[in-house]
Amino acid sequence: MESGNIPEKFTIELDYISSDTSPFSQETSERRIIFHPHQTKSILKYNDSYQPIKFTGSIYKINCTCLNNNFNIIDNIINKKSLQDTLLWIDPRALPTICFASIIYNWLYSINPHKNISLGIIAPKNESKCKNDKFLLWKSSLSGAIEKSKPKYSVWYPSLARNNQSLLKASKYLDPYDVYPLLDFSKIIVETGENELTNHSDMLENTRTRTRHFIYLNSSNPKRSFQKLYNTFKAMPRSGPLTIHPTLTPGGLTVNFLITLLAGVLSESYFLTPSNEIPIDANEEIEGIIVLRKCV
Amino acid sequence: MAPSQKIIPYSASSFKFQKERFKKKLIQIGIDISDTDATKITFLSRRKYDRYELLPPGETFYIRLLQWLTLNFKRYERETAFSIVKALKFIDDYELKELSICSFENIKKQILLEIGEITASNWYSYINIRNNILESELSKTIFVACADDIKFDFFRRHAMYAHPKPFKKDNFIEYYKINKSSLKELPEYNRIILVDQLSGSGTTTIRKEIDEKTNDEFWTGKIPRFFKIWNGFIKNKKIYYSPYIISYVSKKNISERIPQWIEDEVIENDVKCISTCNIPISPCISNKTNTDIDETIPVAKLCKKYYKYFKEDEHTKKVGGIPYGYGRAGLTLILQSNCPNSTPPILWHSYENWYPLFPRVIHHR
């Protein structure tokens, strides 16, 4: 932790289970949360092959944070029955990036670490669907996203899986102090993997990004990727004359997208993404389960 | 760009300047290059190729490439020779370090597969049971380095940082050729992982040879040699051969040879190969499915034509020559520390005044 940052009284732990079904018995106290309007069946177009995760606990349908600045959404669920030692299941499919980030933020601030109420987040397969629209700089809050103005010093973590022209534009807007590009390592090591890197030569050369700054994210080891990113973002000084804002543009494989987003929200970082992006299609198959814990 | 204008090194303007100069020079020597390819190669030469450890200080890939093309090839052949450069796969030290971590994680996955299904009443006990079993199994695992260039120090540090409880220093052995008396000091183990950097053709890993004196066939290579040295210490242990990088040819050869060797030598252990990065035969030299060398395509013809300048040794003679890389591996792979011999020799040899693009240090054990 950088001097000046207040040490927190809890730690965040992430575990990853590589399985498309839950490998453990579910308890009645577990909750699956469906967010209206994004995950309401009537507006989703599912394929015939679509399979939701098998779930035996209660299902809660609640309004998303984006509806009328609805906040404390997680609070309302856990306080109803004084839940303890349980898992809240969240499916990020069909959720806009901003809404998913806000849901995680709500969990972070609603959960007492002594109560052990963790999140079971479904991690779908394949690439996230990134848009190339105008990028917006924002930060998560209990009631959605707060638009931010360009900080004086920002360190940018863009996923190079995104479109090269949109990242180039974003870099010109943000004018970052430093850039740490995020690369999907499983793609880099295959034959044509370097294309992901060379496509962004203009942006990387313009920002004079050093090769040693490249951050490899490994989709087969999300736990390590999370620890690496979360610890990095948390270590940045957030007060005093050397305030630096880590700014994230997640992308690439869905698992890496989710890990970057989680690390960013939990460390209260900024995001630079298209405002109306829905990164994960409702029909994507499940790759694994992320279990996120807030521990004492 | 006006000559008076100063180009600041490692800036965007120097990149554009370098790219334009590169394109111009290539056109001068008879190579038509697209702007996309020029950008890609200029970028990779600044970021990766210039860091090839066997280049003398100050020498750059760009200068070396021009020399390689003009000194070795006739004008009409240069376009073909250049297509090998477009297909290069360069793994730098950062990537190799990451590969070492990925390999460790791969091994953990394999151990979890061995364990099989875990029954738990809820998610919390599932995670606890899984993590406890994994840690217990890791403590009974010995990692043995099969080569000196696998960043084993980094591998060990990552393993011990990620899992501080189960490991002792003796869970990691620097080389498989070890004094037998030291083997008695190892912690209790039920699994040995032979960690290697690259298996290009599988020949160094496992092969059958003929004894020149007796004319008898015998098995040799890293795996059979390991069994000879560790004989008496591996009964009922599971053995995994785990190279960071494996070629298509090697994977095929190893999967065929291990069962034959197990049968011939009556091996009782469970021996498996688990690799992290699988590399096919380079598309510039292979058939459509990247499963074999296509000797009719121009790059393959060029490799064959200039093989006459390559000086064979006992190892290359044994496999009938290596115009497309050792064991017909057909890789266009370069590692930051050295160029493997599974890559065609026209890229790396220096016999008969041949000018290598990536000079290589030969290290046959």
Features:
heterodimer, A: 296 residues, alpha/beta, six-stranded mixed sheet, 8 helices, 26% strand, B: 365 residues, six-stranded parallel sheet, two-stranded parallel ribbon, 12 helices, globular
Description:
The complex is a heterodimer of chains A (296) and B (365). Chain A has 296 residues and is of the alpha/beta class. Chain A is built from eight helices and 14 strands. In chain A, the strands form three sheets. Chain A has a six-stranded mixed sheet with strand order 1-14-5-4-2-3, with helices on one face. In chain A, strands 7-6-13-12-8-9 form a six-stranded mixed sheet. In chain A, α8 links the parallel β12 (245-249) and β13. In chain A, α1 packs across α2, α2 (97-110) packs across α8 (254-266) and α7 (222-235) packs parallel to α8 (254-266). Chain B is an alpha/beta fold and 365 residues long. Chain B has helices spanning 12-28, 35-47, 61-72, 78-86, 93-115, 123-139, 152-162, 180-183, 222-229, 248-265, 298-305, 314-318, and strands at 89-91, 141-145, 172-173, 191-199, 207-210, 217-220, 238-247, 270-273, 277-279, 333-335. In chain B, strands 2, 3, 4, 7, 8 and 9 form a six-stranded parallel sheet that branches. Chain B has a two-stranded parallel ribbon with strand order 1-10. In chain B, a hairpin with a 6-residue loop joins β5 and β6. In chain B, α5 (93-115) packs across α6 (123-139). Chain A binds chain B through residues 15, 17-18, 22-27, 30, 85, 87, 116, 118, 120, 185, 188-191, 194-195, 197-198, 201-202, 204-206, 208, 211-212, 214, 216, 218, 220-221, 224, 291, and chain B through 10-12, 15, 39-40, 42-44, 47-48, 89-92, 94-95, 98-99, 101-102, 105-106, 109, 117-118, 120-127, 131, 162, 276-277, 279-280, 282-283.
